[in-house]
Amino acid sequence: PVTRKKNTNTNINFAFAGDQLYSYPTQDVIEWKLSEETKKISDFNAQKATSNFGGRKWTAWFVKEIPFSEGPYKFTGLPGLIVSLEDSQNQFSFNLIKSKKIDKTYDTKNILEVRYGNKPVMITEKMFIKKSLEYYQDPYQQDREDLKKGNTVVEIEGVKYTKASDLIPLIKDEQEYIRKHNNPIERNKAINYPVK
Residue 48 has what pLDDT? Predict the structure, then answer.
């Protein structure tokens, strides 16, 4: 998830490394190539635009009738609202389902800026990659340390463990899960997790 101040290319990214939520700023300029091609989407006359962003090729359909230069995720910069967006491999697809004028502005800070009463730790993107790799290297570090310090039992998902070495299969399973699901929207920012 990201937040962006309107009409800027500065995004605040929110992402987990383990159980810790982090946030970090990025500058994300998207260069669009406008097409004359149009099509009807719902009640709108949408125009096509394409871009290469984040290691993927994107096709967007935007509506000049809604003069907001906004869209999903980090996609902005077109002369109208993006109502449909998809990458060339059909792995990511965004579509406007409904537009509704609301009577007031709602405070949404508890969704991203605060999680269960805790603010995310603000770091740099480089530091986030480092933290993600650290978590990947030893996802059960705290539990292993607790067992080494003499805690006789650690319970993980209803299973009790008494030795740090008992956690090795869990570590390998978590590492495999992380590698298997390493397909971010910005593919060029996928972290290169080593296979052990």
Answer: 98
